[in-house]
Write a structure and sequence with these properties.
Elements (H helix, E strand, L loop, with lengths): L7 E5 L6 H6 L7 E6 L2 H6 L7 E6 L12 E7 L7 H14 E12 L5 H23 L3 H4 L1 H8 L3 H9 L3 E7 L4 E7 L4
Parallel strand pairs: 1-2, 1-4, 2-3, 4-5
Antiparallel strand pairs: 5-7, 6-7
Helix pairs in contact: 3-7, 4-6
Length: 191
């Protein structure tokens, strides 16, 4: 389902509602976005004043109680890497239950490139450059120090794609920037 046709959108692991900026150019004014994040600080820093309704919730998407078949579109950017394989399976179950028949989903995550040379350069960037930038501009590299660790353990979205397929969803796996990011998108079949 195109964003322009969606009414009820769920942003799982929404961070500071970064996806709202992308949605603003494509969504209709009647869009209702339910954004979920486990971090009170991220929610506190979330911008307000979008032309569509945004309800931000402090919640763990793996334990949150929601109405089945209530989403036209489920989105998430850069939240999967911290999930174990078992948690990815649970998230896939929840996405399948949350989507209405014919509804769509899209997830993207930083990933480990397959090219040996690019992998070395990119992982050096994640493990050393990003924490240094965090120290320089934010005074605290600790928030970014685990980025490379999480990314290495996560690898890419292939396992999550398999979990979504196991839940009966139609899934396409996508590589971005030569594998430095990967994603999944697809739909819940209509009944």
């Amino acid at each position: 389902m195109p964003i322009s046709d969606a009414t009820d959108v769920f942003d799982l692991m929404s961070g500071m509602n970064e996806l709202c900026r992308s949605l603003a150019s494509k969504a209709k004014n009647s869009l209702r976005l339910s954004a979920f994040d486990i971090s009170p600080e991220m929610i506190r820093r979330s911008p307000r004043g979008w032309r569509f309704r945004v309800e931000t919730h402090l919640a763990d998407v793996l334990t949150w109680n929601f109405e089945p078949d209530s989403a036209d579109l489920v989105l998430s950017s850069f939240g999967l890497k911290t999930f174990s394989r078992a948690q990815q399976s649970e998230l896939a179950r929840r996405v399948a239950r949350l989507l209405r028949p014919g509804g769509s989903f899209s997830f993207v995550e930083i990933s480990v490139p397959r090219s040996k040379y690019l992998r070395w350069l990119y992982m050096f960037y994640l493990n050393h450059v990003i924490p240094w930038i965090g120290r320089l501009f934010l005074g605290n590299p600790e928030n970014y120090r685990l980025l490379g660790v999480y990314t290495t353990a996560f690898a890419d979205c292939r396992h999550f794609a398999a979990c979504l397929r196991n839940e009966g969803l139609q899934v396409t796996f996508i590589e971005y920037f030569f594998g430095c990011a990967t994603g999944v998108r697809g739909t819940k079949p209509s009944r």
